[in-house]
Amino acid sequence: MAAQVEPLRIALAQIDATVGDIDGNAAAIARSIGRARDAGAQLAIFPELALSGYPPEDLLLKTSFVDTIGSALEGLAAEAREIVALVGFPERRDDVYNAAAVLADGRVAAVYHKIFLPNYGVFDEQRYFQAGTEAAVFELNGVGIGVTICEDIWEPGPPATTAALSGAQLIVNLSASPYHAGKPLEREEMLVQRARDNLASVAFCNMVGGQDELVFDGCSSVVDQDGRVLARAPQFDEALVVCGVDPGAASAARLRDARHRAAVRRERDSGAPGARSLGSLSVPPAGPIEVGGPVAEPMGEDEEVYAALVTGLRDYVQKNGFERVVVALSGGIDSALCALVAVDALGPGRVSCVTMPSPYSSEATRADARAIAENLGTDLIELPIDGLMKVYDGLLRPVFDGREPDITEENLQARMRGNIVMALSNKFGWLVLTTGNKSEMSVGYATLYGDMAGGFAVLKDVLKGRVYRLVRWRNESEQRELVPASVLDRPPSAELRYEQRDDQSLPPYDVLDGILTMYVEEDLDAEQIVRDGYEREDVERVIRLVDLAEYKRRQAPPGVKISTRAFGRDRRLPITNRFGR
Fold first, then answer.
1. What is the CATH number assigned to the segment(s) 8-281?
2. At the N or C end, where does the chain have fewer CB atoms within 10 A?
3. What is the C-alpha separation between 67 and 64, in angstroms, rounded?
4. What is the C-alpha to C-alpha distance for residues 268 and 262, in angstroms, rounded to an integer?
């Protein structure tokens, strides 16, 4: 394949696809193809499974779903004139494949099948797809372009190396790479390494937006053969990023660095077929092209996590057709953060807060709940539960006679509140946001059909320590106290009995979070955690509580994944389980 010294202008179309909205996704892709062409791009790259949305899960078991996508792709191909577009879609042939279509000259010119199908963490692709077998390269105006899909490029060898050894100067990657804290940097470091190893530019286009519990952060990028970032899309926002790439620089680098020569000879001598050719295409020249494009600054850690929560909630609400959400605002730190995220995701006009004080609710927390609602501009509904508590006490007194009050009465208060917020949901169609954090969900410090009652758990994967950091960050970014300092300074309490404090029922949150990180997210056992410096009594107690609460978490609503190991589709353990007990 001859070297090509003329730069190529490419466009990364970082879109927010909705699973199952084939017409809507096709329309978004068509608009982006048009915008890319108007910007002078010769190649437009879209995310993995952009046409179906990711992950479509058991929709892929419906032949009508996959066949409808095939028809939509044929219609979409008509938009690809004077530009080439790479579009991710599920293709049904002898089986179903995770595929990338090369659209050119108004037709589907070629198709590549993903080779590496991840089946760990949140991924379940081997349940749905057959694996491809061949690396693939096509020519565009004389430039060799290797095609990969998501996991294909995380693997350090083929198919990316095969494409490079077959002459590809640019390797493109269509991706739907779910977010967790710190992943954008990890991923970009991997892309830099792949570019250097293959002496080829890498163009990575990622999905953006929320899909159930997953969030896609975008952060699409172009890296040259030396590992220099030429362009980077913003995080958590749709974007069309246009970037000039110089494939001749990759060819020149290979002349100076002869590492690939021996590898090419080995491939040739072994009789390996190399990358399959997807054909040779051409589009009109785009005029003078400058190498590079816009480079968005990456977010800081707290800003990044907060943006993920906002994105996940916003898309869950929007894509499922809810007009409004309701938050039980107690005046505590968790409900404060939940309300902050809701207002930033939807605006204050689409958020209702309800406070349900009991005789155990302090004047301080009542005042803080009012202050938070006022600062955020949301309406606040006050529904005291004193009367309800008396009714329940009277009703149950004959049955409970002779028994001292205990956690039963505490849980009743939570369930009264759960009934009230669900009544508001039923009457007005509002989505109830639960406010429990990961630390409490881990150890069962939450009430079934009480504070766990709702439709979406915004903080489900946020440890208590991070809750405090996020609230402080949000106050600082606003340069005023959206959440009063008293909320941050007050010892945490469920306020279900007089002078109750969380640290009377649980280890201190810094200790609890450290143990949970090691046990839940890193899968370490008690001995390993104790060796890290934690008290054995605390470790064994926390592990026991986590294991016993599995049945509760199985009944919890979905929530935004922001860690490497979230409850739900990420961490899967049996409820009936005697190991270690």
1. 3.60.110.10
2. C
3. 5
4. 10
Inform me whether the pLDDT recorded for 121 exceeds 80: yes
CA distances from 210 to 109, 215, 313, 318, 488 (A): 31, 4, 8, 10, 29
What are the tens digits of pLDDT across the range 418-462?
Answer: 999 999 999 999 999 999 999 999 999 888 898 899 999 999 999
CA neighbours closer than 13 Å in the CB half-sphere of residue 10: 35
Q: 452 Cβ partners below 8 Å, 6+ apart?
A: 418, 434, 436, 446, 552, 555, 556, 557
Query: Taking each helix axis from N to C terminus, what angle separates 509-516 and 464-478, rounded to the nearest 10 degrees?
Result: 110
What is the biggest distance separating any 2 CA atoms in the chain, rounded to whole angstroms? Answer: 91
Report domain extents, the chain. Answer: 8-281, 301-502+549-553, 507-548
Average pLDDT over residues 75-92: 96
The pLDDT assigned to 2 comes to: 46
DSSP letters for 213-271: TEEEEB--EEE-TTS-EEEEPPBSS-EEEEEEE-HHHHHHHHHH-THHHHHHHHHHHHT
- Judge if 8-281 and 301-502+549-553 fold alike in CATH terms: no
Q: Which residues are catalytic?
A: 48, 114, 150
Tokens (6 digits) for 506? 């649980």
CA dist 448 to 22, 94, 327, Å?
A: 37, 46, 17
- The CA dihedral of 246, 191, 315, 471, to the nearest 10 degrees, is -120
Q: For the chain, give the percent of residues with pLDDT over 90.
A: 77
Angle 125-131-132 from CA coordinates, rounded to 5°: 140
Q: Is the pLDDT of residue 275 over 60?
A: yes
**Side-chain-side CA neighbours of residue 390 (13 Å):** 4
2: left (phi over 0), alpha (psi -120 to 50) or beta: beta
How far apart are alpha carbons 490 and 361 in whole angstroms? 13
Measured CA to CA in angstroms, residue 292 lies from 45, 46, 173 at distances of: 16, 19, 18
> What is the domain class of 301-502+549-553 according to CATH?
alpha beta
Q: What average pLDDT does this structure show over 344-368?
A: 91
- Kindly indicate the confidence band of residue 576, based on its pLDDT and cuts at 50, 70 and 90: confident
Other C-beta atoms within 10 Å of 566: how many?
A: 24
